Amino acid sequence: MKKSGVLNRHLAGALAELGHGDGVLVCDAGMPIPPGPRVVDLAFRAGTPSFAEVLDGLLDELVVEGATAALEVRDANPEAARLLEGRFPYLGLVTHDELKALTHSARLVVRTGEATPYANVLLRCGVFF
């Protein structure tokens, strides 16, 4: 049995299957999820688990070479914007509609219980060497 890191077996397995360039959408409870990507739904209740908690757990496990979020996060959810800009100094910003279109190419979607607007980010996996 694992004693640290991601303990959820579905999420741990999905993370192990990712490769360079794969997209991982970390999203709030309200983000529409397109057909196609593997989905690990961690949402339990509104706010649990939080976007920040899940994102930080994933960043402990993944090599990330890029991240894209919705431009609207800056005005609608300044707390999430600060979190994202703190984690990703070169955060790409697109409109929410463009972000939703980009999610179709994601390999994995991790849905949180976050119940605040625009708490979504599309990560692009890198390599550790």
Polypeptide structure, described:
It is built from 5 helices and 6 strands. The protein has helices spanning 9-16, 51-61, 73-76, 78-87, 96-102; strands spanning 23-27, 38-41, 64-70, 92-94, 108-111, 121-125. Strands 2-5-1-6-3-4 form a 6-stranded mixed beta sheet.
How does the SSE layout of this entry go?
Blueprint: H1 9-16, E1 23-27, E2 38-41, H2 51-61, E3 64-70, H3 73-76, H4 78-87, E4 92-94, H5 96-102, E5 108-111, E6 121-125
Parallel strand pairs: 1-5, 2-5, 3-4
Antiparallel strand pairs: 1-6, 3-6
Brief sketch in words of this structure:
The chain is an alpha/beta fold and 129 residues long. The protein has helices at 9-16, 51-61, 73-76, 78-87, 96-102, and strands at 23-27, 38-41, 64-70, 92-94, 108-111, 121-125. It has a 6-stranded mixed sheet.
Q: What is the overall pLDDT average?
A: 97
Count of separate DSSP helical elements: 5
CA-atom Rg in angstroms: 14 Å
Q: Tally the beta strands.
A: 6
Order of helices and strands: HEEHEHHEHEE
Main sheet: which strands, in order across? 2-5-1-6-3-4
Largest sheet: 6 strands, mixed
Shape: globular
Low-confidence stretches: none
Structural class: alpha/beta
First-to-last CA distance:
28 Å
Helix content: 25-40%
* Range of strand content: 15-25%
